[in-house]
Amino acid sequence: MHIPKRYGQSRVDMCPFCRKHATSMNSQKVPVCQSHKKETLGDLKCACGSTLDMLHGKFGVFFSCMKCGNMNLKKVMELNAIKPAAGDFKGDGTTQNSRQAGKIMITVRSDDPRYFD
Predict the structure, then answer these.
(1) Where are the alpha helices (DSSP H) in 2-109?
(2) Of 18, 46, 62, 74, which has the fewest beta carbons less than 10 angstroms from its beta carbon?
(3) Which of 89, 109, 107 is nearest to 99 (CA)?
């Protein structure tokens, strides 16, 4: 069965801070939502432990590791925990991450070095 593509649904960028639809770019040219437009991504680490270089290409932002090669934004976000600044508070004085403080979810992939320990 063939399902045709619809305009605007083939690529949807997500904000790395809150996982909403990204509608603007920050100063690093990373697609983010309107509320995190002034946020920047810090030093991101690869699975091997080295720092990643941020590059911009035809298909958006990607990262380069000297040992592992190129990685896309989605894979880097899986490896690194991104925390928004302190200004992302809700009305009751808690952040989104503190509401789920009791639940810990660890994603283990086959190319993760901790997988074989």
Answers:
(1) 73-79, 96-99
(2) 74
(3) 89
Residue 65 lies in a domain: yes
Spatial contact of 68 and 48, defined as CB atoms under 8 Å apart: yes
> Is residue 54 a part of any domain in this protein?
yes
CA angle, corner 59, sides to 15 and 17, nearest 5? 10
Q: What is the pTM of this model?
A: 0.60
Strands 53-57 and 60-65: antiparallel
Residue 88, CA distances (Å) to 36, 50, 53, 72 in order = 9, 29, 27, 26
Residue range of the domain that includes 46: 41-81
Question: What is each CA distance from 41 to 17, 29, 73, 74, in whole angstroms?
Answer: 9, 10, 11, 13
Q: What Rg do the C-alpha atoms of the chain give, in angstroms?
A: 16
Q: Is residue 15, in this structure, part of any structural domain at all?
A: no
pLDDT tens by residue, the chain, 117 residues: 787 877 766 778 888 888 888 889 989 888 899 988 988 888 888 888 889 999 988 888 899 999 989 998 888 888 888 776 655 444 444 444 444 567 777 777 777 776 665
